[in-house]
Amino acid sequence: MSSSATINRSSAFSSPRVGQRNWEYATLYIFLAPFAVLTALFGIWPIAESIRVAFTDSYTALSDSPVYVGLDNFRAVLAEPAFHSSLWRTLVYTFLSVILNVSMAIGLAILLAHPRLSRGRTFFKLAIFLPVITPDVASFIVWKWMFNQNFGVVNQALLGLGLPPFAGVTQPGSAFVTLVLVEAWHHVGLYTLIFLTNLQLLDKSLDESAQIDGADRWQRFIHVTLPQLRPAITINTVYALIEFLKTFTVIFVITKGGPNFSTNFVSYYAYSKFNSAQYGEATAIATILFVIVFAVVAASYWYMEKGDQR
User: Fold this and answer.
1) Which of 80, 171, 263, 280 could disulfide-link to 73, CB 3.0 to 4.6 Å?
2) What's the pTM?
């Protein structure tokens, strides 16, 4: 009798808890449902539709009865030297931009977190982060004016200092460098904020122990600070890879892929195809870029996560 009574009593107490837990799960799904629907409509569906168009003939791609041509668009794109050169430029640009942005962000975050920077810390934080929230097109137009050869403030300042003028977007090499610098100005603030947040969470006792053991500032940075920043480095590197592999707006506003196609990256090359009504080949390029971004990011994330487990 006592055992059965105990079982009945425990089930009576557990059933409300089970019901409450089920209601919590239901509430969670209710709040997540709108975001899931929006993600499917504006994220997954456009990607799937773009991939579908990549297998159709360009002249019928947007019609009600498209003609499917299999892998012909992919074969045509992969056979074009212009695509290979645009892909190579994109990879070089991404590599340089990721290295520059992540390293600059670490340095800026360390400077902002320094104890001696007691005054003006908030001002410098806002100054570094402000470009992140500045509208892309507006800021890139201003940069285009700044690098103008006739009235740009950059060359006016260089000439005032007795230095030779900067070619800006008029020469292939300098145009490439210009995009790297402009994009660094626009994005480095976000990476800095992430590093700065992580610096405030570091275990100070490890740094103090290393200092007691005789490690200098550089040794403590390499062997104590950087290992603790690995999660932030992973996040920033993965995000930067995604951002720079699909660079488009800065090219569209400042260089239009020039001069002499020196900034004609994969995303802009796909746009030029789409603009000339080559819809099948344009979406094929976009699909290839999507696969490359996914593969590079997945490989980078796997490599860094594997490093965390060593």
Assistant:
1) 280
2) 0.82
